[in-house]
Amino acid sequence: MLLRHFGKVWLNFSGPRFCSKSEACVSRGIALTTAHSGQRNDRRKTQITCSRGMSGKNYNVPPSAEFVARVSGIATMGKLPYRETAEGLDAAFVGVPIDTGTSNRPGARFGPRQIRSESAMLRAYNSGTRAAPYESLVVADIGDVNVNVYDLKDTCKRIREAYHKILATGCIPLTMGGDHTIAYPILQAVAAKHGPVGLIHVDAHADTSDVVLGEKIGHGTPFRRCVEEGLLDCKRVVQIGLRGTGYSPDAYKWNRAQGFRVVQVEECWHKSLVPLMAEVRAQIGSGPVYLSFDIDALDPAYAPGTGTPEIAGLTPIQGLEIIRGCRGLNLVGCDLVEVSPPYDTTGNTALTAANLLFEMMCVLPNIKYY
Ligand SMILES: [Mn+2]
């Protein structure tokens, strides 16, 4: 395998004690791409990521844990290189560390950091689907949106402007939340580029409240705002996993009236979601679609680290079936939101989130499968 080969190259050119500059790498068609002083310093080499020339592109390939310790280096998503901007990238992981839109337990502002930390477990290939994202797309971690933790409306403006810039480069954003408020300004930017988009929304909650405590902006209202502003192609919207107590006996009436397909969690219990996703693909068709995955869609037994948990949720397997079922769709952006690390001392919620984000990358357009 190329990566195993790459790993050996890495070991060869790094040597057991130091990282000498790129001769061996270059001689095998591998270029060093991150800041590299050539200093003979053991610690530096763990922060260097090589990329490999192929089809005229230099793909970013994270260092394999076969050769570089997982726990070493600066914590980027998937141990990918950090980049200042999305320029030249096909896809980018970006964090939006806010929780000022939460209605109950806070803490999602720490989500991106812990997802990055736990993502050190990720490897380069998807063993289940045989996807090879790092042989397909140029991907990097472009850091976090510079949010204003004192002002949610200003934060929304900052997010919208940041995503306008990301999308203008042609890069597909893979977002790490942050609470679900962020989907609203992200979709404003997405719709500005693509027009009204389809939406696959996986969540315990519909997030279509109109006003909460007199406020229009919060993590319970983003998709109501999106509908009002015409950002969604409502016939191509599906909400999956909705559950919990409601403010009225027919909590999802408004959603269905917009044309959304609402799949309440009871329809998912004890079932594979592979057949559902075949129907979803038919509903969504070939137009642009955005995937928004709230970690609270999963049962809190699996993902307790979240702000508004609801019992009897989806399993991680069903989460994978949903994401893998998005293969072939024209995904123009994805997010994974509402990871609140303080409510899960094990880190497993963030670990689950990291894996789900990796799976999202694996179903983007133009991914190579072995
Ligand atoms: Mn949500």
From TrEMBL:
Keywords from the named record: Hydrolase, Manganese, Metal-binding
Molecular function in Gene Ontology: agmatinase activity; guanidinobutyrase activity; metal ion binding
GO biological process: putrescine biosynthetic process from arginine, via agmatine
PROSITE patterns reported in the protein's UniProt record: ARGINASE_1, ARGINASE_2
Gene3D superfamilies referenced in this protein's UniProt entry, alphabetically: Ureohydrolase domain
Domain of life (superkingdom): Eukaryota
A Pfam cross-reference name: Arginase
Keyword match Transport: no
Listed cofactors: Mn(2+)
Family according to the record: Belongs to the arginase family. Agmatinase subfamily.
Descriptive protein name: Agmatinase
Organism of derivation: Alosa alosa
